């Protein structure tokens, strides 16, 4: 089952795909940015900050364009509220990636080498979680029966993110030779990255309800 409007008005379908592409792209830039930061590659990190800010700007413009189309042209009136909420929630995930990368830039945490692999794994879990959410959203617009195939992966990656986050926090607080303020800063960074996966699962929970409503 698909939205009839996406069959009849290819422009709308293309905009939805373009918007979801930006959410996906923000995740890739986030992961590359974290890698560059840990390698102390300041030039590459600064470029990823610039790129993700541009992607966020384009994504916002696409979302606003879609919202205007849904309102002014009275498209899919029965599902319009759900679609608008889904678009806004997906845009929120893009913002999370950008905000987390900017936080590295602003606070410049000194992450000791023993944590690097786990930090990269945590970033990867967040990206995989959101990417699964992007695939779920695409299926919602194109093939409702395929949504469940992707939603369970959102839950899987959120669970993996929690495990890595917990392991990292234990490592940080087991380092008695580190100042408490430093350990708390690292803890906050770890939690902030983990929140990306949490928010993706929140969106997945909403999407499950939208799918049920569409199936009635």
Automatic annotation (TrEMBL):
Database matches in InterPro entries: DUF47, PhoU-like_sf, Put_Phosphate_transp_reg
Q: Origin, by domain of life?
A: Bacteria
Checking Pfam families in the record gives: PhoU_div
Instruction: Identify its protein family.
Output: Belongs to the UPF0111 family.
What's the protein here called? Answer: TIGR00153 family protein
Task: Specify the species.
Answer: Desulfosarcina widdelii
